[in-house]
Design goal:
This protein is α/β, with parallel strands linked by helices. It has three helices and eight strands, in the order βββββαβαβαβ. It has one domain (31-115): MTH938-like (Hypothetical Protein Mth938, Chain: A, 3-Layer(aba) Sandwich), CATH 3.40.1230.10.
């Protein structure tokens, strides 16, 4: 089996997560986060749509992590994000972290907003 080292060009990979935190690019972030090639910052949850809308035109897909369990996001949030041209994929936060890293390693234009587990 051939192994290749994965390199991340623009954004930082998600190194891990746990109860109430994410470790992204070697740095621990408490609570909900938003991460993309532009950097990582705290995210205020579903009501905090302004930083998500700012990603329109910068990313093709926004992964939304719903915490430990998969759940629906508010319908008006989905409608607003999709209306701005963002592709929205909702999954639990562990799956969002894994999927984000895989697509990031492929050089895709992605972002992730996730609630902590």
């Amino acid at each position: 089996m051939r192994l290749n080292e994965v390199s991340f060009s623009d954004a930082q990979p998600i190194d891990g997560y746990g109860a109430g935190f994410f470790r992204i690019g070697g740095q621990v972030h408490q609570g909900a986060v938003l991460t993309s090639a532009a950097g990582t910052s705290a995210w205020g949850g579903y009501a905090d749509d302004a930083p998500l809308l700012a990603l329109a035109g910068e990313v093709d897909v926004l992964f939304i992590g719903t915490g430990a369990e998969i759940a629906h996001i508010p319908a008006d949030l989905r409608k607003t994000l999709e209306g701005a041209g963002l592709g929205v994929e909702v999954m639990n936060s562990p799956a969002a972290c894994r999927t984000y890293n895989v697509l990031l390693s492929e050089g895709r234009r992605i972002a992730m907003a996730a609630l902590a587990v």
